[in-house]
Amino acid sequence: MFHGLFKMEPTCPHCGVRFERQSGESIGGTLVNLVLAEMFSMGGFIITQVLFQPSWIFQLIFWVSFNILFVILFYRHARSLWVALVYLAGGVYVDPEPEPPNAT
Ligand SMILES: [Zn+2]
């Protein structure tokens, strides 16, 4: 699905389905990525705070770094998860053949 680290192919090279039909659909992938990053870092923050009581500066540096790394490394997975959700909703399919120009 991807060409390089961050560039998504518009269509599947094997079966030709179009991954994103409307402009702005990639926002869904960004949403998946940010929501998961926040859930993991808030959960991790609360758990480490309860178990180990590390210093606030350590917590801040660790979880900000975690967030940045997670969002970068999970980018392709988040975009792919979003395409999978759109697929389940029926929004990922092969483009119909264009009408021949001299059909009439
Ligand atoms: Zn395919």
Beta fraction: under 5%
Bound molecules: zinc ion
- pLDDT average, as an integer? 91
Q: Spans with pLDDT under 50 lasting ≥5 residues?
A: none
The count of DSSP E runs of length 2 or more, i.e. the number of strands, is 2
Order of helices and strands: EEHHH
Task: Find the structural class using helix and strand composition.
Answer: mainly alpha
- What percent of the residues sit in helical stretches (DSSP H or I)? 55-70%
Our measurement of the CA-to-CA distance between the termini, rounded to an integer number of angstroms, reads 38 Å
Outline: elongated
Number of helices: 3
Tell me what you see in this structure.
The protein is 57% helix and 4% strand. The protein contains three helices and two strands. A two-stranded antiparallel ribbon has the order 1-2. It has a domain of 58 residues. By secondary structure, the chain is mostly helical. Bound molecules: zinc ion.
What is the compact description of this entry?
The chain is mainly alpha-helical. The protein has helices at residues 26-52, 56-73, 75-88; strands at 2-3, 7-8.
Question: What's the SSE blueprint?
Answer:
Layout lengths: L1 E2 L3 E2 L17 H27 L3 H18 L1 H14 L16
Antiparallel strand pairs: 1-2
The protein binds zinc ion.
The site of zinc ion has 4 residues, from loops.
